[in-house]
Amino acid sequence: MKAMGEFEQLVLLALLRRPGEAYGMEIRDEIEDRTGRDVSYGAVYTTLDRLEGKGFLTHRLGETLPERGGRARKYFRVTAAGREALREARRTMDVMWDGLSI
Description:
Layout: H1 6-17, H2 24-35, H3 41-53, E1 57-65, E2 71-78, H4 80-97
Antiparallel strand pairs: 1-2
Helix pairs in contact: 1-2, 1-3, 2-3
């Protein structure tokens, strides 16, 4: 299984909290709302590209929008491999935390 960093996990979890699929700004807002962290759009989109390369998510293009200069939004969805990677990351952390009280 391909390893995932903390921010990659946050992006996938934020995406799973949205019904169906979401685009980058929605994912960024979800992370900021839930964690209180300031998150840049660039960090989200770089991470989305990396996660897609790992096979953990897919995207589709939406309608072109005049307010986006005629560009289409990318809508992302977590794949089965992405869900399994999140479960594995959680199992790994649970094992490491087991028996510790700090």
